[in-house]
User: Which sequence fits this backbone?
């Protein structure tokens, strides 16, 4: 961070002496005004701070309560959806329990911080609703563990009578958060109005002081405020995004030094922002390139190659794990359905290992294609592969098997020719 060293030379009639001469005549009146303003501001600030802090804190707590209720409902849903998976069911119940503990803590904090009777009553209602919802979830969870509830639909029906309580808790939490936020805004508006009144008092006192120093009030303010206004306008331009904003006044006093420091700061800020914009653009381009490479990798992992009219070859290379099998199935089925494919040759010549899992995935893909009305040919069947299929006890019903990819294409040509003859 750049530090600007303020070196104020001994100006012959600097700004400090000008201010001392101008304001010396108004010292007594300013002291009275300051005393009144300090007392008024202290009273207003204390009241406003207390109201804003309490309402702001309650608004944040209400927002947290809303979030925890939504989190409980989400984990409740996940728990029911995994009713037939004991490990997942236990995990989601633990997450639900953690979220509920956070909800319970938030309600207790809201109740402890509540000041008005409405807030205290609302906290009590929330606590009662959350306990009813907790008891309902515990009851359903026990019924699931006992085997008396077996499906998500049964679990939802069992929890339905208590869902209105948690929904009501969510809705009222939102209403309370909005209400508290509105109260904070109202307090701020009241504070602004009061400050305007105080500003009126200050302005009136200032006018009285101006009457005591007519000469200074005519000559000095013009000289003093002109560079300040220039600096204010330049600052506003900088805030609005004009990074070329500079001040043009030239004075040999403290304001002149401030203007030079401002110009230096604006110029360095401009340079830094330009550098950041260049870095952001470079990062965006790198991100787009990475996304293009990832898309290319996904396309190369699951190729569907058209070789003839409505005839496609699906070459399988490497290890066919669950992720690749899912992507392959989606790509092949989407392409064949869109293009109305009649024949698909699944070539397993490049498969590194043919075990039970890989063979089952190929079998599922072939069956899915047959459901679309597509004839499937399995090529790349060597003697070791055939022996492995027999040992695994697998059957590829209604799937034509050939040794080489060329044989599969010849089979398709012969089948198409036979279809033309029959037509």
Assistant:
């Amino acid at each position: 961070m750049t530090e600007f060293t303020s070196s104020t030379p001994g100006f012959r009639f600097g700004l400090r002496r000008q201010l001392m001469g101008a304001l010396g005549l108004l010292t007594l009146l300013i002291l009275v005004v300051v005393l009144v303003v300090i007392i008024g501001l202290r009273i207003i600030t204390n009241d406003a701070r207390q109201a804003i802090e309490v309402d702001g804190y309650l608004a944040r707590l209400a927002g947290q309560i809303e979030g925890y209720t939504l989190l409980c409902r989400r984990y409740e849903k996940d728990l029911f959806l995994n009713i037939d998976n004991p490990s997942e069911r236990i995990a989601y119940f633990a997450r639900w329990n953690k979220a509920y503990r956070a909800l319970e803590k938030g309600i207790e904090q809201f109740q402890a911080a509540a000041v008005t009777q409405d807030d205290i009553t609302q906290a009590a209602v929330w606590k009662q609703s959350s306990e009813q919802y907790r008891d309902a979830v515990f009851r359903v969870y026990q019924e699931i563990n006992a085997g008396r509830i077996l499906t998500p639909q049964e679990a939802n029906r069992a929890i339905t009578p208590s869902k209105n309580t948690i929904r009501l808790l969510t809705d009222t939490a939102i209403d309370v958060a909005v209400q508290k936020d509105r109260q904070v805004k109202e307090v701020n508006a009241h504070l602004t109005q009061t400050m305007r009144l105080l500003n009126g008092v200050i302005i009136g006192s200032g006018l009285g002081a101006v009457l005591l120093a007519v000469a200074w009030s005519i000559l000095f303010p013009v000289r003093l405020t002109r560079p300040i206004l220039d600096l204010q306008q330049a600052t506003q331009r900088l805030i609005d995004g004009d990074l070329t904003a500079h001040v043009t006044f030239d004075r040999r006093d403290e304001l002149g030094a401030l203007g030079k420091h401002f110009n230096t700061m604006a110029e360095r800020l401009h340079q830094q922002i330009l550098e950041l914009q260049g870095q952001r653009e470079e990062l965006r381009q790198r991100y787009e390139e990475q996304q293009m490479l990832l898309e290319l990798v996904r396309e190369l992992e699951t190729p569907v190659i058209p070789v003839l009219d409505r005839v496609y070859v699906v070459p399988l290379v490497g290890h066919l794990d669950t992720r690749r099998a899912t992507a392959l199935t989606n790509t092949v089925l989407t392409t064949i359905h869109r293009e109305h494919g009649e024949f698909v040759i699944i070539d397993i010549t490049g498969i590194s290992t043919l075990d039970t899992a890989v063979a089952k995935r190929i079998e599922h893909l072939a069956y899915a294609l047959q459901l679309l009305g597509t004839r499937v040919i399995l090529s790349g069947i060597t003697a070791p592969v055939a022996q492995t299929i027999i040992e695994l006890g697998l059957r590829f019903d209604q799937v034509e098997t050939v040794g080489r990819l060329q044989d599969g294409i010849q089979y398709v040509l012969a089948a198409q020719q036979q279809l033309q003859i029959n037509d």
